[in-house]
Amino acid sequence: MEKITLPKISSIQGTVKLPGSKSISNRSLLLAALGEGQITLENVLSSNDVDRMFEALQTLNIPCSRNVEERTVELQGCAGPLPNGDFNLYLENAGTAVRSMSAAICASKGNYVIDGNARMRERPIKDLVDALQKLNIDISYEFNTDCPPLNIKANGIKGGVTSVNGSVSSQYITALLLASPLAEDTVTINIDGELTSKPYVDMTIGLMKKFGVDVTNDNYQTFTVPAPQKYINPCNFIVEGDAGSASYFLGAAAINGHVKVYGCGKDSIQGESGFAGVMGQMGAEVTYGDNFIEVKSNGTLNGIDIDMNTMTDTGMTLAVVAMFAKGTTTIRNIANWQVKETERITAVATELKRAGASVEEGPDYLVINPPEKILNCEIETYDDHRMAMAFAILSLGTEITILDPLCCKKTFPDYFTVREGLVK
């Protein structure tokens, strides 16, 4: 296994132009494919997850081309459902792509297989499958495991009423929303329980509106999508910088440094952009601009008790920043960490303990008491990109070794190179 040893650093200083958001890149690729007209997507992320979505569109014979160096995609939309036929789509461990494609393909006609790698075959998708079956869609599991691979005998979406568990993953709701305008009649989606990660659903609805489709949101309990509606591609669409990726630099700056990230700002559609505000609550100096976020250390961070449900991915960054704070940090309402790239609550707790922390973990929370001195150790990343990038922050306290650092290719392939340009 490859590994990288990061020497102890004193601070992090400088500016970062953020790579495109993974969430927005994947959503915009699918929306563009479903839309009418030619479109140029700009600042599209180049990463494993987005690569798999783009390759799936190519497999479906959608006219599209990509300039990775310029971060652009040229695409001619289908002006409706994705192409009919018999297709096998391999999406590795790209959760957003698997879930959204599984729903969107139901509007087409043909036999489709949606599959991924070994980890994806362990990631439950039952709530989405159940919701699609309530719309009389013929979708089933190849191995009866409630996980991919999925077999879809698509014959269009007729419309109707369905329901989905909202407490596990907002990606299920996103998938249903993206597919619903392609139905023959209105689709109503009722949410069972409390909807998790609401900002991601807001992002989806906002992007759908930019592509010409309206959704009614009744207090996050019922979503109504009039259908049929047609997605209309704008001539150009610029993908926001990834706020989750920003958190690793902003979190490090809150500990000791001064960093300004460009690509998202005060009007960001990403819930994760609120992470800098959390650093402000802990004691850092924070500034939000039109297209930047800036964090500067004020010398001391204080532990915090906070609900991170609206920005769950950056909760991992917070957990590592807590190692440098004065007092206890409690991170709440993070049950959906367990259905991510790895079982993140357990993984984060295990590695924080390895670095010397006292950690209490529960089904939806972590309580972190930092050590007097962070221990020099090897950090296991569990093939989880966010583990690698978040735990690199520990190098502000000690030399640290990150195992399998290449897993960050999922969202930020050159993270360690960019980081190296900021360390002091």
From TrEMBL:
<feature type="binding site">
    <location>
        <position position="410"/>
    </location>
    <ligand>
        <name>phosphoenolpyruvate</name>
    </ligand>
</feature>
<feature type="binding site">
    <location>
        <position position="95"/>
    </location>
    <ligand>
        <name>phosphoenolpyruvate</name>
    </ligand>
</feature>
<dbReference type="GO" id="GO:0009423">
    <property type="term" value="P:chorismate biosynthetic process"/>
</dbReference>
<feature type="binding site">
    <location>
        <position position="171"/>
    </location>
    <ligand>
        <name>3-phosphoshikimate</name>
    </ligand>
</feature>
<feature type="binding site">
    <location>
        <position position="170"/>
    </location>
    <ligand>
        <name>3-phosphoshikimate</name>
    </ligand>
</feature>
<feature type="active site" description="Proton acceptor">
    <location>
        <position position="313"/>
    </location>
</feature>
<dbReference type="GO" id="GO:0008652">
    <property type="term" value="P:amino acid biosynthetic process"/>
</dbReference>
<comment type="pathway">
    <text>Metabolic intermediate biosynthesis; chorismate biosynthesis; chorismate from D-erythrose 4-phosphate and phosphoenolpyruvate: step 6/7.</text>
</comment>
<dbReference type="Pfam" id="PF00275">
    <property type="entry name" value="EPSP_synthase"/>
</dbReference>
<comment type="similarity">
    <text>Belongs to the EPSP synthase family.</text>
</comment>
<keyword id="KW-0963">Cytoplasm</keyword>
<comment type="subunit">
    <text>Monomer.</text>
</comment>
<keyword id="KW-0057">Aromatic amino acid biosynthesis</keyword>
<feature type="binding site">
    <location>
        <position position="169"/>
    </location>
    <ligand>
        <name>3-phosphoshikimate</name>
    </ligand>
</feature>
<feature type="binding site">
    <location>
        <position position="313"/>
    </location>
    <ligand>
        <name>3-phosphoshikimate</name>
    </ligand>
</feature>
<feature type="binding site">
    <location>
        <position position="22"/>
    </location>
    <ligand>
        <name>phosphoenolpyruvate</name>
    </ligand>
</feature>
<dbReference type="InterPro" id="IPR013792">
    <property type="entry name" value="RNA3'P_cycl/enolpyr_Trfase_a/b"/>
</dbReference>
<feature type="binding site">
    <location>
        <position position="23"/>
    </location>
    <ligand>
        <name>3-phosphoshikimate</name>
    </ligand>
</feature>
<dbReference type="GO" id="GO:0005737">
    <property type="term" value="C:cytoplasm"/>
</dbReference>
<protein>
    <recommendedName>
        <fullName>3-phosphoshikimate 1-carboxyvinyltransferase</fullName>
        <ecNumber>2.5.1.19</ecNumber>
    </recommendedName>
</protein>
<dbReference type="InterPro" id="IPR036968">
    <property type="entry name" value="Enolpyruvate_Tfrase_sf"/>
</dbReference>
<dbReference type="InterPro" id="IPR006264">
    <property type="entry name" value="EPSP_synthase"/>
</dbReference>
<keyword id="KW-0808">Transferase</keyword>
<dbReference type="GO" id="GO:0003866">
    <property type="term" value="F:3-phosphoshikimate 1-carboxyvinyltransferase activity"/>
</dbReference>
<keyword id="KW-0028">Amino-acid biosynthesis</keyword>
<comment type="function">
    <text>Catalyzes the transfer of the enolpyruvyl moiety of phosphoenolpyruvate (PEP) to the 5-hydroxyl of shikimate-3-phosphate (S3P) to produce enolpyruvyl shikimate-3-phosphate and inorganic phosphate.</text>
</comment>
<feature type="binding site">
    <location>
        <position position="336"/>
    </location>
    <ligand>
        <name>3-phosphoshikimate</name>
    </ligand>
</feature>
<feature type="binding site">
    <location>
        <position position="340"/>
    </location>
    <ligand>
        <name>3-phosphoshikimate</name>
    </ligand>
</feature>
<feature type="binding site">
    <location>
        <position position="123"/>
    </location>
    <ligand>
        <name>phosphoenolpyruvate</name>
    </ligand>
</feature>
<dbReference type="InterPro" id="IPR001986">
    <property type="entry name" value="Enolpyruvate_Tfrase_dom"/>
</dbReference>
<dbReference type="GO" id="GO:0009073">
    <property type="term" value="P:aromatic amino acid family biosynthetic process"/>
</dbReference>
<feature type="binding site">
    <location>
        <position position="22"/>
    </location>
    <ligand>
        <name>3-phosphoshikimate</name>
    </ligand>
</feature>
<feature type="binding site">
    <location>
        <position position="386"/>
    </location>
    <ligand>
        <name>phosphoenolpyruvate</name>
    </ligand>
</feature>
<feature type="binding site">
    <location>
        <position position="27"/>
    </location>
    <ligand>
        <name>3-phosphoshikimate</name>
    </ligand>
</feature>
<feature type="domain" description="Enolpyruvate transferase">
    <location>
        <begin position="8"/>
        <end position="417"/>
    </location>
</feature>
<feature type="binding site">
    <location>
        <position position="197"/>
    </location>
    <ligand>
        <name>3-phosphoshikimate</name>
    </ligand>
</feature>
<feature type="binding site">
    <location>
        <position position="171"/>
    </location>
    <ligand>
        <name>phosphoenolpyruvate</name>
    </ligand>
</feature>
<feature type="binding site">
    <location>
        <position position="344"/>
    </location>
    <ligand>
        <name>phosphoenolpyruvate</name>
    </ligand>
</feature>
